[in-house]
Amino acid sequence: MSASNSNTRGPFHADELRPGDRYELSNGHPIYCLPAGARHAHGNIVGALPLATDPAVESAGIDAGFSPTPHILRAPDIAVGGVPNEPGWIRGAPPLAVEYADTGTDEADLKLKIHELLTAGTEHVWIVRLVGPRRVEVHRPNEPVRTVSSGDVLVADGILKNPVPVDALYDRDKAYQATFQNLLERQGYASLDAVRAEGREEGREEATAQAILHVLAARNLVATDEQKARILACRDPALLDAWLTRAATEASVDALFA
């Protein structure tokens, strides 16, 4: 029975279903979930990459089962936020839910699923349309539906730090680009250029530190192991330059650090 065909409460509870069962529940009625087609399955993996790696995201899941009430069990294609690493259904609803809609999608059930997720507390539901032009329908509580097209970006303030290009939910290379940027930011870098600049700066700093030691050795000034370690560990370009000047002029290694 399709949940959309009955307003009466069905006989099933979410706790009666097991992980791996191919059913969702709406008002106690089972909804059979067909295996995903190739295009749909590809979309799930591609779309999960830039979403799960966003610097603000702590958890995400594919086909995670959410049960906000005993008679409802819904599994968005991608859930962002609220996915603990533990067994069983998840109580409540994800902050962001993504559904891929392909040929064969039951539009009545999809509409009901959106309603149930938003009612349960989901803040954004993105419907990624796989039929026709690339576009994502954005559903939010008490707001009209918006459509965001290819070439534009999607935002989820308070859930995602970075905008998500619509095309990154379809195209693997676009998804990789967004994912790479996310991973850089997770490590504290604004861009790949920032990584390269740091590498160049670290190379310069290491070269300056080695030059200080060579100058001291050439002047027969013997640095202790502790002093050598301090020089090699320094990453302050201005301080290293000052030490290099002192290494060439001061009478002792101790004076270098005065």
Short summary of the structure?
By secondary structure, the chain is α+β, with helices and mostly antiparallel strands.
Spans of at least 5 consecutive residues whose pLDDT stays below 50 are 1-5
- The total count of strands amounts to 12
Please report which band the strand proportion falls in: under 5%, 5-15%, 15-25%, 25-35%, 35-45% or over 45%: 15-25%
Bin the helical content. Answer: 25-40%
Task: Report the CATH superfamily of the largest domain.
Answer: tt1808, chain A
CATH topology of the largest domain: tt1808, chain A
Task: Give the N-to-C terminal Cα separation.
Answer: 83 Å
SSE order: EEHEEEEEHEEEEEHHHHH
Structural class: alpha+beta
> Can you give the mean pLDDT?
89
Q: What is the CATH architecture descriptor of the largest domain?
A: Alpha-Beta Complex
The DSSP helix count reads: 7
Specify the overall morphology.
Answer: elongated
Tell me the Rg in angstroms: 28 Å
Major sheet, described briefly?
Answer: 6 strands, mixed
Strand order of the largest sheet: 3-5-7-8-9-10
Tally of distinct domains:
2
In the CATH hierarchy, what is the class of the largest domain? Answer: Alpha Beta
Organism: Pendulispora albinea
Pfam families: Uma2 (PF05685)
Keywords: Endonuclease, Hydrolase, Nuclease
Domain Putative restriction endonuclease: 17-156
